[in-house]
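Lab manual, section 2.4: Encoding a predicted structure.

Procedure: take the sequence of the chain (94 residues), apply the prediction step described in section 2.3, and record the output as structure tokens. A sample record is shown.
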Amino acid sequence: MDSRDEWVRTKQDLVSEIKKLGFPESLGNEVAVNLGSPKAMERMIAYLHYVKPRTAELIVDEMLAICSDIDRWKKKKMSEAANAAYNEMLDEGI
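Recorded output:
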């Protein structure tokens, strides 16, 4: 399955889960777009399935928390890469 197909399938699953909870499809579409990746959407689907939030605000709050975790992870990886490059420079010289 190519990544576009995976994204579409996961988005459909997310929208379906949000609709099952009684929220509009448009909320699911916006959440999917903001999360961006299938992995992030799968994390949101798990949250929806187990927590069953009763308000849209709780769904959006979890979406923002997931986005924040992803941003934090990306910054950590960038920092690690920069640190590795700096250490290599120190070891091998300029």
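Check your result against the sample. The mean pLDDT is 93.
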